[in-house]
Design brief:
By secondary structure, the chain is an alpha+beta fold. β7 and β8 form a beta hairpin. The strands form two sheets. It has an eight-stranded mixed β-sheet with strand order 5-4-3-6-2-1-7-8. Strands 9, 10, 11, 12, 13 and 14 form a six-stranded mixed β-sheet that branches. The chain contains 18 helices and 14 strands. It folds into four domains: 54 residues, no CATH class; 220 residues, Heat Shock Protein 90, CATH 3.30.565.10; 282 residues, Ribosomal Protein S5, domain 2 (2-Layer Sandwich), CATH 3.30.230; 67 residues, Orthogonal Bundle (Helicase, Ruva Protein, domain 3). The structure holds adenosine-5'-triphosphate and magnesium ion.
Length: 645
């Protein structure tokens, strides 16, 4: 130390490098000053890592989502209003499905005089934008919530009944209604009001609560019995800042489209002083869709890390064989022994000794049956067509089709697609760039619930764009959705819809889902092709007849002079003859390969690209007339005798 101090400022004799003169550090100088002034020791300086360590603490999910409400669709008042309605109606539909009753849901939206101000630099007037506070109320006839669980079910983030069940449902995570309540209390300062009644409860039960996001716990403001008109069900009231746009009604419409068995009332007062408007979407079918069934996870759907945790925490199984049979679907005793042998794991070994990587490898090679596929509850092809007809009553053509259930990474799923083509109501829903160039509308559904935002990132949207719609006579700019007055419904149902973000806006890419969607949309395209071809043939025929009619009068007039017959009779004969074109004979008519089913609107069974020239019109019945022996007439040759009788 002393040596170094003496060498400071001199050149190193070996390297010749100048040794820098040591400056007293600020801390050293401070300490020196301090020593001279007081005898108290200064706190030891801490490192950056120590300073960071002092800040470390657990983040609870309520705090996290309060700061990241955008991830759940509550980023701004416009999105938040639709998202609030979506979360509440999702829960209502799930609750009626659990109860096994036809849903009766009322959504009430009332603008209040209260305002919410946000700082923004978007407006010209200034940097403050104000939004009305809406009272959003959603009431259902679902199963209700038992009294002891109401506070937590609505007041504790990531608390719910659906996360741990492998069952198709709209809700998956225990976040939706909580995010809406947090958004409500952040923007309006008002608590949520829940009135609920189970079928065994003699009266309704009302709770007013807020969520303490610091503790992720409910703060109950009041609770007690309250009247509730239905035998069972729930009503949730929230005060949220919102921007009322056409998205709201469009969402309600899509929700009704996705749930043809639901009776949906939407009562809205979009601004103070306005009259209430009521939109009533009556159910299109009284038939309840099948109840989705709960299953255990499939071994192939497990990540190695998750399996590792599962086997380490397992406390109920004594052996590896028991563990596999108990926790996974499609694994019988025999299958478990086979897999364990393949993975070189002793069947009697305790679960904690399972080598997860070897087991998963054996499972991948071991040909495990796909998960049971009858656990899903699709909308149904017919119900979807009825639903489309109800929303688009004047559509020219309505069609729907679905694929057999399939699975991605051990998770069952099914796709259904539908379309409404042409007609005023469809055109009204499709934006137009010029007067005649339409932009088709794509309705994406995940477990029968409309996905509202981030369509560009969604697999359901991407596959619609991928299809070459021009093959089906539908205009399209390459790589874009079809450019026609066309509403395409793309529905994916699954025990676990792979959403990209917790807000459930868009579906992530999975090759199996993409393939099934592609095939379903191609079938749908063929149906539309069949209709368009039929319509074009009709138009062509009308055109042909109209040209003939122009000349028929003249011809009949001249003929009547020549043949001394009644002009009107001749004209009728001429017109009749053009109506009934004789069928052209073509080589033995191979029945076209039919993959499409006809809809109510149009009866057609045509494959694209298959030129079928078989006219199916009834052959004209002509009365046999006793006539003198006729000259042999060439086929297709018109003779005057034919009209003179
Ligand atoms: N209308 C309702 N009727 C009956 N139970 C309800 C209703 N609304 C909410 N719940 C209960 O509250 C729980 C929490 O609802 P929340 O919307 O937060 O989560 P989730 O529906 O389970 O999943 P997600 O986050 O995907 O919406 C639900 O799981 C359900 O048990
Ligand atoms: Mg929910």
């Amino acid at each position: 130390m002393t040596e170094m101090a003496t060498d400071v400022g001199k050149a190193d004799p070996q390297t010749g490098v100048l040794v820098a003169r040591a400056k007293p550090t600020v801390a050293r100088a401070r300490r020196k000053r301090h020593r001279t002034r007081s005898s108290k020791p200064l706190p030891e300086p801490i490192t950056v890592a120590e300073a960071e360590a002092k800040k470390m603490r657990t983040v609870n999910p309520a705090q996290y989502y309060r700061q990241n409400l955008g991830q759940l669709g509550f980023g701004d008042p416009e999105h938040a209003l639709v998202q609030t309605i979506k979360e509440l109606t999702d829960n209502s539909l799930d609750a009626t499905e659990a109860m096994g009753v036809l849903p009766e849901i009322t959504v009430k939206l009332t603008a209040t005089a209260k305002r919410y101000e946000v700082i923004t630099n978007k407006t010209k007037e200034g940097s403050v934008r104000t939004f009305p506070i809406f009272r959003v109320s959603v009431e259902d006839n679902g199963c209700g919530v038992v009294r002891s669980k109401v506070a937590k079910a609505f007041g504790k983030v990531l608390y719910g009944s659906k996360f741990f069940s492998f069952k198709q449902s709209r809700g998956q995570q225990g976040l939706g209604v909580h995010a809406a309540i947090i958004y409500a209390q952040l923007t309006s300062l008002e608590p949520a009001t829940i009135v609920t009644k189970t079928e065994t409860d003699p009266a309704g039960y009302k709770v007013e609560l807020k969520i303490d996001t610091e503790k992720n716990a409910p703060v109950v403001i009041s609770s007690g019995e309250a009247p509730f008109d239905r035998v069972h069900g729930t009503r949730v009231d929230l005060m949220v800042a919102g921007d009322y746009t056409e998205k709201v009604e469009s969402f309600i419409k899509e929700m009704s489209l996705a749930n043809p068995h639901a009776d949906l009332r939407f009562k809205v007062k979009a601004a103070t002083g306005q009259d209430q408007r009521v939109l009533h979407f009556k159910r299109a079918t009284d038939v309840l869709p099948p109840q989705p069934k709960e299953i255990r996870p499939h071994l192939l759907s497990m990540e190695p890390g998750a399996l590792l945790e599962m086997k380490s925490n397992d406390a109920c199984c004594r052996t590896a064989k028991q563990f596999l049979v108990k926790h996974f679907v499609r694994i019988s005793g025999g299958k478990a022994l086979y897999l364990l042998k393949k993975a070189r794991i002793a069947p009697q070994a305790p679960p904690k000794d399972i080598d997860v990587e070897a087991l998963l490898k054996a499972a991948r090679e071991g040909d495990i049956m796909r998960p049971p596929l009858d656990v899903l509850s699709p909308i149904g092809e017919e119900a979807l067509r009825h639903s489309l007809k109800r929303i688009y009553p004047d559509a020219e053509f309505i069609a729907s089709t679905s694929r057999e259930p399939w699975s991605y990474r051990g998770v069952p799923f099914q796709v259904e697609v539908g379309a409404a083509y042409g007609g005023q109501s469809v055109s009204n829903d499709c934006a137009t760039s010029k007067e005649t160039i339409f932009k088709s509308k794509i309705v994406r559904l995940g477990n029968k619930c409309p996905l509202i935002y981030d369509s560009k990132d969604c697999l359901l949207y991407k596959v619609v764009k991928e299809i070459n719609w021009r093959n089906y006579k539908i205009p399209q700019d390459e790589g874009n959705p079809p450019a026609a007055p066309l509403v395409v419904v793309v529905s994916l149902i699954s025990t676990k819809v792979p959403y990209i973000v917790p807000g459930k806006f868009a579906v992530a890419y999975h090759e199996e889902i993409r393939e099934q969607l592609r095939l379903a949309l191609q079938t749908l395209g063929r149906m539309i092709y069949g209709y368009i071809s039929h319509r074009q043939r009709q138009e062509h025929e009308q055109h042909r007849q109209s040209i003939f009619q122009i000349y028929a009068k003249e011809v009949a007039k001249d003929l009547s002079v020549l043949a001394e017959k009644d002009e009107q009779l001749l004209l009728n004969g001429l017109l009749e003859s053009v109506k009934h074109k004789k069928p052209k004979k073509v080589a033995p008519p191979e029945p076209p390969k039919v993959e499409i089913t006809a809809t109510e609107n149009v009866e057609l069974k045509v494959e694209p690209k298959v030129e079928t020239r078989v006219e199916t019109r009834p052959v004209v019945e002509t009365k046999p007339v006793a006539a003198p022996p006729q000259k042999k007439v060439e086929k297709g040759q018109h003779t005057l005798d034919a009209f003179f009788g």
